[in-house]
Amino acid sequence: MFILELGLIGLCIALLPLSWVWVKADDDKFRKLVWLTTFMTLDLVMFGGFTRLTDSGLGCPDWPGCYGTSSPFIAHVQIAAAHLAMPSGPVSMTKAWIEMIHRYFAMAIGVLIIAQTAIAWRARIKRLPLHVSPWWPTALLGLIVVQGAFGAWTVTMKLQPIIVTTHLLLGLLLLGSLAWLAARMTPLPAYEPDAARWRVAALVALVLLVVQIALGGWVSTNYAVLACTDFPTCNGAWIPPMDFHHGFHLWRALGMDGNGDVITQDALVAIHWTHRTFAFIVVAYLVWFALKLRRYASLRRPANWIVIVIVIQFLTGLSNIVLQWPLPVAVAHNGGAAILLLLVVVLNFRIACSRPGRAVLPARDTAAV
């Protein structure tokens, strides 16, 4: 019964953006729905970071509900008892609400993608001009099912770092895929004859960014943000004592090494130092790449934004160390990484499509009405 209640909550949340798209007085409803879903997925990724950073991932220690109910209101007795038994533990009413709000919005995005899938297949069956294959939203629907499974394992496997990191990366894969679909549904800028030569460089930028995000996720899920307490050195040394073997042993419990012992400080330093050091490579490459693309009118705006977001990322990353990991700054750092991913994906799309015959897509569609 509570599964049905959870579904209704997700549907009610999704009805707000669906209603906004429906009442818009134009024919671009499907494109607006995709962009709105992309924006909400970005919000969900940031709220997922907030959930992790507030240690709320086990605020409801079961899945998909909270102590077998659809709301912390209903489960208040069990939550109060768990908090009384362990006041400093992972369960409290505040943490339970943070975790359940994260799940509610994830379900709402699932509803929005189901709506996209239904609209796309209806357009295919009725031969309406939607300008996108229905297999795109169908693949996104499959991806969000896999993402939901990793969300469940995040809870049932007690925040095991590799599971949590994979959950984060799948969320970013969903975000990037939605951004690509949204860009595909949007009229392209004027054709740039020379931009296509940057395709390989754009792909390298995307790969480097994804690796850096994965390293950042590994830092966060292992709570290694404060393993180095100074900058630019790490604990007073350029190359401090580090244990890469245990730090990057993937299959292990939270706070433990591969042998089941408590993870050492040297292992946490290895995790932090690797993320920090690789950041210099990624920043240098992305700044060089963005500055090179500023010569193209169709690429100048996202390229400028990449430089701006990188500066913000550097400042928030440094603040996490100097200011001892303040929550708003840590959430902003997570969000900045997601925004960078969006910008690099958009650049990859525009460069990949920068050739004759694919300069502009129709600006209107009637399949979504």
Automatic annotation (TrEMBL):
It is a multi-pass membrane protein. Its EC number is 1.3.-.-. It comes from the Bacteria. Its main location: membrane. It is found in: Membrane. It is an enzyme of class 1 (oxidoreductase). Keywords: Cell membrane, Disulfide bond, Heme biosynthesis, Iron, Membrane, Metal-binding, Oxidoreductase, Transmembrane, Transmembrane helix. The keyword Cell division does not apply. Pathway: Porphyrin-containing compound metabolism. Pfam families: COX15-CtaA (PF02628). Coiled coil: none annotated. GO terms for biological process: heme A biosynthetic process. One of its GO terms (molecular function) is metal ion binding. This is Heme A synthase. It comes from Paraburkholderia caffeinitolerans. The lineage of its organism: Bacteria, Pseudomonadati, Pseudomonadota, Betaproteobacteria, Burkholderiales.
